[in-house]
Amino acid sequence: MTDGTLIPVFTHPSPAVRRVPMDRPWHWLRLGWADMAATPPISLGYGLILAAVGFFATAVAILDGWLALLLPLTGGFMLLAPLLSVTFYEASRRRERGLPPDAAACLNAWRGNLSGIGAFGVVLLLMHLFWVRLATLLYALMLGDVHVPPDGLPAVLLTPAALPFLIVGTLLGAALALATFTISVVTLPLLLDRNVGVLTAVATSITAVRASPRAMLLWAALIAGAVALGMVTLFIGLVPLLPLIGHASWHAYRDVVRLPAAITSIPSEA
Question: Which pTM does this prediction carry?
Answer without folding.
Answer: 0.86
